[in-house]
User: What shape does this take?
Amino acid sequence: MSYINIEIKARTNRTEEIRKFLLEKGADYKGLDTQTDTYFNVLNGRLKLRQGNIENNLIFYTRDNLSGPRQSDFDLAEVKNSDVIRSILTKALGVKIIVTKKREIYFIGNIKFHLDTLDGLGEFVEIEATDKNTSLPVEKLHEQCHFYMTELGIEEKDLVPLSYSDILLGTL
Assistant: This one.
């Protein structure tokens, strides 16, 4: 399936405050996922296999490295035999990098929130306004993302323009 996200990633030292806010707003807590994202060598965009105890997906996406709310166009397929898929893609494309994280997953309507912890990088919050039914205009997704940035007290200085893979590749 093809989707559009308007999303942000921000560094945070206020994970507990954000968690409390989300729960007070009635967010649907999906759980704590330990995720391993294997990024493969591709000519354009990013291709990753996400393996976790909650989410197991093959994801191809394109997105500009911008620090504010940005559009991400992606294709996502749920994966059942992720170890087999990883082995095939590794042989065919080669592995670019592997990213491991602890991720708390919450939803408020069509908005997905991640509270992420990565060894060596710290804590992050992500907001993803997603239109899975292609019924919401992109402007509405931007509004939703900005609304929750304000509600969560996320400032411009906290925003991170890069994916975790790009951050780690830059620090290796």
Notes: The chain has four helices and eight strands. The first helix runs from residue 15 to 24. Helices lie at 15-24, 82-93, 138-151, 164-171.
